[in-house]
Design goal:
single chain, 701 residues, 10-stranded antiparallel beta sheet, 17 helices, 26% helix, elongated, disordered C terminus
């Protein structure tokens, strides 16, 4: 015999203790229908009836109570066959407490009184550590081990005597998502079930007193959940086994947590491969800051902002996969570098990043919700598939898939419970120091990359009345005097620029400045600002272009010049430079010119991730000075974290982009809302295995 606690996992004991107690202690009558394998019992006043062996498997035990002797039921209760008899007896004893007195009116018995009250039941379960969730007109309460649940339906329009299809109170014991198999046992009570009955049921579910059972008669999965092993493996009831239950299992608690962390990491990495992930999880979720002035959901954003938000949420969830062990209280690995941003390109966006309808805090809230849903979307079969060939412990004996059947099932359920806890902690993955910030302010500008806004560089020209002409992928901008010209060529990877002076307007080119497609637009815009504002002066070539170096000299750049080369390098590991060959014509290398080369960036593993501006030798000094001044300007520029070059992060100062307070009378209220703490994620719907697009199955995030 073994002691079993919690009681609801004891299962039936194949005894007749329910009827024996009612007959010997409370004076009930009993009759056996042998041909039907059924047993019936009734109270002395014929108001309470109990049947065992009923044909409905969900209500193998059935209790009916009537106001009048042999009258129609006032309320009913049903219990499946595997229900521990002590649970059934706890309810039926409440019906028998009138003793030998017969209540002819049926009004004095507490088990026949209305209205009913569920507050004590709820408090009893909550005090025992059960957790509650309310949604869609029902209250769900779940035991700390996630193996027992009580659901209370609040439906004033339901049938008060409907026991089977829509019971008012439903108890289910066993793991969730059993692949269509019924729970270990279940119980159902109708709407009119009295307070004393539901309170007795709650007390029986939470009673800490162990029950004794014959181990040989118990279900293998129940034994596994209770820490006993089967299939020839030693159990903690055998005299030769160590006292610790952990010693009887081929895996430790750490093994379980590491396995759960691997499943979490895979689930989060999978986010990018599910195109509708944000749509499924956050489409109808309110944006916490509500910066539009009215409550707004993600799905109500303008299309371009919504597309960007969904992409950023996906990026954040994928990047957080590397930190999944923290959700299981495990140390993070040595290689904590997050995965790169999504392979999907940044969508076009006209709005400034500081004027978006959502903030970083809003994105963190949405990412926590999506991450929780991803983890919750992994069911038992998904866990089994993910871990099947992975070693247990040191891998010398077992893989998770090769464990004995009962131990395998037990391990899956324990990992499943760990995943539930991990999903509840996903907000920890998106703390304010999440790196890099999805919406960021970065310095220095010369390592910030091309950004998403392709209108920044052209705006100084159009604001000064330059004409534009489209020629396929190229746009030509012409000054009012017709001698200054700029043209841009755009492709999927960015926009390159060429500025030049022609003398006369249709004649030969006097000087030229080119910027490749990865040049930060703020630097090109600085050049164009001077170009458009000083057009009259720039039509005359300058002989003192080197005067344009004043900003880098003032900023403390390093002078690494030689007799043949003029070179100034930035002080931050020389990630930017201004260079020009000054050697006599006969000493220049083949292909070398006297043009100015302004560049920045480190080469990546493939394509060079830096940029270059080339200016001809006689380019006017104000243009060179505009470029060098923009490069040394310490003002941070707004960027999407996903667009920052990974090789440059080491040299960048990246800070979260704070939202701009909207103007107008409601600005103060909106700013206050922006500072509020984000709410806990809401719950996710029930769902499928990881092999399909997860739809969630535990509590909403």
């Amino acid at each position: 015999m073994i002691d079993v606690t919690p009681r609801y996992l004891a299962g039936r004991d194949y005894s007749n203790q329910v009827f024996d107690q009612l007959v010997t202690r409370w004076g009930w009558r009993r009759a056996d229908a042998t041909e039907l394998s059924q047993t019936f019992g009734w109270s002395p006043d014929h108001r309470f009836r109990l049947g065992a062996g009923q044909l409905d498997p969900g209500a193998w035990w059935r209790i009916a109570a009537a106001k009048e002797p042999l009258g129609p039921p006032e309320w009913q209760a049903g219990f499946s066959q595997e229900t521990p008899p002590e649970i059934v007896l706890a309810v039926t004893e409440e019906l028998a407490r009138t003793g030998t007195a017969i209540d002819w009116t049926g009004e004095s018995h507490p088990a026949l009184k209305a209205p009913t009250d569920r507050r004590t039941l709820i408090h009893t379960l909550l005090d025992a550590g059960w957790r509650s969730t309310y949604r869609d007109g029902r209250l769900d309460l779940e035991a700390p081990d996630h193996l027992a649940r009580v659901q209370i339906r609040i439906d004033p329009h339901g049938d008060p005597l409907d026991l089977m299809s829509q019971p008012h109170l439903y108890v289910e014991v066993g793991p969730r998502d059993t692949g269509g198999y019924p729970p270990y046992w279940q119980a159902m009570l109708t709407t009119t079930a009295p307070t004393v009955v539901v309170d007795a049921l709650a007390q029986a579910l939470t009673d800490p007193t162990p029950l004794q059972r014959d181990r040989d008669w118990m279900d293998e999965e129940l034994l596994a959940h209770l820490g006993h092993t089967v299939d020839g493996v030693l159990t903690d009831t055998d005299p030769q086994v160590p006292e610790s239950r952990e010693a009887a299992r081929p895996y430790t608690e750490t093994d379980l947590r590491e396995a759960a962390a691997e499943v979490c990491e895979e689930a989060l990495e999978w986010t990018e491969d599910l195109d509708l992930t944000p749509d499924m999880y956050i489409e109808d979720r309110l944006i916490p800051s509500s910066r539009t002035g009215t409550p707004t959901t993600w799905g109500q954003l303008p299309s371009e902002q919504k597309a960007l938000a969904y992409l950023l949420v996906t990026d954040m969830v994928v990047a957080a996969a590397a930190s999944a062990p923290a959700l299981l209280d495990l140390p993070l690995g040595a290689n904590l570098d997050p995965l790169p941003a999504s392979r999907k390109p940044t969508p076009p966006l006209a709005a400034k990043l500081s004027e978006l309808a959502f903030t970083i805090g809003d994105l963190e809230d949405a990412a926590a919700c999506a991450a929780a849903a991803q983890i919750n979307g992994v069911d038992l079969s998904g866990i089994a598939d993910s871990l099947h060939d992975r070693p247990v412990g040191d891998g010398t004996k077992w893989t998770w898939g090769s464990l004995p059947t009962a131990q395998h099932k037990q391990a899956l359920h324990e990992i499943d419970r760990l995943l539930t806890g991990a999903a509840e902690r996903t907000p920890e993955l998106f703390a304010p120091d999440f790196r890099p910030a999805p919406l960021a302010l970065v310095t220095p500008v010369y390592l910030a990359g091309p950004g998403h806004d392709r209108t920044t560089a052209s705006r100084p020209l159009t604001d000064q009345g330059w004409t534009t002409e489209k020629q396929g992928d190229t746009t030509v901008y012409t000054s009012p005097c017709r001698r200054l010209r700029a043209q841009s060529t755009t492709d999927d990877k960015g926009t390159s620029w060429t500025s030049s002076l022609h003398s006369p307007p249709s004649g030969e080119e006097t000087w030229r400045a080119t910027a490749d497609r990865r040049t930060p637009p703020e630097i090109v815009a600085a050049l164009h600002t001077v170009l458009a504002a000083n057009a009259a002066e720039l039509v005359r070539p300058s002989r003192h272009t080197a005067h344009g170096l004043a900003p880098v000299i003032a900023a403390g750049w390093h002078d690494n010049s030689t007799r043949e080369h003029l070179m100034w390098d930035s002080p931050d590991a020389e990630t930017a430079s201004v260079y020009r060959c000054t050697a006599p014509a006969g000493q220049m290398f083949a292909g070398e010119s006297r043009a100015w080369q302004i560049s920045a960036g480190k080469p990546g593993p493939g394509e060079v991730e830096g940029w270059t501006i080339e200016m001809s030798e006689n380019t006017p000094a104000p243009l060179l000075e505009a470029v060098t001044a923009a490069m040394t300007d310490p003002t941070p520029v707004a960027r999407l974290g996903r667009d920052l070059t990974p090789e440059h992060l080491l040299y960048l100062d990246v800070r979260p982009l704070l939202p701009q307070t909207p103007s107008g009378p409601s600005a103060r209220a909106l700013a206050a809302r922006t500072r509020t703490t984000n709410p806990e994620p809401a719950a996710v719907p029930t769902g499928a295995a990881k092999s399909a697009a997860p739809t969630g199955r535990r509590r909403l995030c």
